[in-house]
Backbone:
């Protein structure tokens, strides 16, 4: 074993000519990486010769260094007891956020999933920009909500709805709601416990969590926090190095993950301008441009900065390879057309998620809800319906049990919610997520009674009128709660504004 490096030695490498940093007691020589760093060199240089763990952790997946820094630059370890934590100075912004945190609405006054966005300002501006942003003009993220409002209920009456049951089965796993937690990256941007808030809340409430490839917590930390036999799914970004992907997938299967959701709508990440602008402000990038530096990656935002490993060459030809490396269910996440839905079915997948990635990828892509109609019609021509071997999920814009019931009536097996739960734990930790589940449960009870459906199987196509769903122009009532929480895009900022 190599000997420990004194922190005084690390401190000698504290500038652009020789820059070492400490992360989780490991020492890295990042001198040559400085100009490669997607977040710019300035932020690394701030920690040159020092411990950067606190700044690193919330915005990097756990293996970011392993994936990006050649092994010979991993210099060694320091004795954790000797590391002087760089005490982050408390800024005015931190104080403002703490005051807001103290004044958050009490949890029992949070009555719906939109309410979790009311305290959005407790998030750092960077977190809010990353989580809330969507691509280009953010038309699709808003359409995801609006689409639900173009479907109307046709409730049935006098059906003895004394007892109603909204539990279901998702890919062979019991679920207390017809809802699963969809994958969202970088949970520690919102809360120090990151994705573990979801894992713990899901365990208590019988909900299934989809673990993101780019979680802030490591895959094993999340699985370790789960209860024995707690069902978990895995969202997969496919690495250009297929050996890495193979190892990751097989490890997940060994650890009991039940289904693999391969993201297929992100060969390149969308331009999320709120996120990109935040980067501009944070790094003082405007000033750097004036200094004549050409650090082209600095305006890419958090997500783009960490997504360069994703393989844009992924194709239908790869599906048999996935089948050959795992026995988990394979679901394609991000399908939008009947053509691709049928190809997925014929390729032997076990399901698809009709998703536009929360409006973060191709802007003006249609909503998953709207696509559901044509896709179900196409699948009906190919096999039994409902098909016990092929599930159709929808995500995007779901905030209410009524939204979920509309998707189920139109043929979805279950529905994914990403941001709703992300905001719940960002503002209130695990308790927030549990509150979100309770709220949904209440909404399911009421809506199913009023709809005349005693269980999920009784939520049928005749219970909705979707005739307006494909009308993209026309009057849709204003969704007041969503409009209050929705933050409009801003224009370019003047310097020193
Ligand atoms: O939507 C996203 O932000 C996302 O999927 C992602 C992809 C790569 C890196 C980080 C997040």
Residues:
């Amino acid at each position: 074993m190599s000997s420990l490096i004194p922190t005084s030695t690390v401190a000698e490498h504290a500038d652009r000519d020789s820059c070492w940093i400490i992360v989780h007691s490991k020492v890295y020589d990042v001198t040559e990486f400085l100009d490669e760093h997607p977040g710019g060199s300035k932020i690394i240089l701030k920690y040159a010769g020092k411990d950067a763990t606190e700044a690193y952790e919330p915005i990097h997946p756990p293996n970011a260094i392993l994936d990006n820094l050649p092994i010979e630059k991993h210099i060694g370890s320091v004795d954790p007891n000797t590391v002087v934590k760089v005490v982050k100075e408390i800024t005015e912004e931190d104080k403002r956020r703490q005051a807001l945190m103290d004044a958050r609405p009490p949890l029992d006054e949070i009555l719906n999933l939109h309410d979790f966005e009311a305290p959005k300002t407790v998030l750092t501006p960077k977190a809010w920009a990353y989580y809330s942003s969507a691509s280009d003009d953010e038309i699709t993220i808003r359409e995801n909500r609006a689409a639900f409002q173009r479907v109307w209920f046709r409730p049935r009456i006098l059906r003895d709805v004394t007892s109603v049951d909204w539990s279901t089965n998702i890919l062979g796993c019991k679920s207390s709601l017809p809802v699963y937690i969809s994958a969202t990256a970088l949970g520690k941007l919102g809360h120090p416990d990151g994705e573990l808030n979801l894992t713990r809340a899901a365990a208590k409430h019988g909900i299934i969590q989809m673990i993101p490839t780019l979680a802030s917590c490591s895959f094993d930390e999340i699985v370790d926090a789960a209860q024995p036999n707690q069902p978990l799914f895995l969202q997969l970004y496919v690495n250009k190095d297929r050996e890495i992907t193979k190892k990751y997938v097989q490890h997940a299967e060994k650890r009991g993950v039940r289904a693999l959701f391969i993201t297929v709508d992100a060969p390149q990440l969308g331009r999320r301008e709120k996120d990109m602008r935040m980067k501009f402000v944070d790094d003082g990038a405007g000033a750097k441009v004036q200094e004549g530096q050409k650090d082209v990656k600095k305006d890419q935002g958090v997500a783009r900065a960490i997504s360069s490993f994703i393989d844009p060459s992924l194709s239908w030809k790869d599906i048999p390879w996935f089948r050959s490396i795992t026995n988990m269910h394979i679901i394609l996440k991000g399908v939008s057309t009947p053509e691709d839905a049928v190809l997925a079915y014929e390729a032997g997948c076990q399901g698809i998620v009709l998703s536009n990635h929360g409006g973060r990828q191709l802007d003006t892509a249609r909503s998953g809800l709207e696509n559901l109609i044509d896709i179900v019609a196409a699948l009906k021509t190919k096999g039994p319906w409902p098909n016990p071997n092929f599930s159709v999920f929808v995500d995007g814009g779901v905030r209410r049990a009524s939204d979920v019931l509309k998707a189920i009536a139109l043929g979805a097996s279950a529905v994914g919610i990403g941001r709703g739960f992300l905001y719940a734990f960002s503002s209130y930790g695990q308790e927030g997520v549990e509150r979100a589940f309770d709220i949904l449960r209440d909404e399911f009870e009421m809506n199913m009674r009023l709809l005349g459906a005693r269980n999920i199987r009784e939520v049928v196509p005749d219970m909705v009128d979707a005739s307006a769903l494909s009308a993209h122009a026309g009057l849709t009532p204003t969704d007041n709660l969503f409009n209050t929480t929705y933050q409009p895009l801003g224009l370019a900022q003047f310097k020193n504004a």
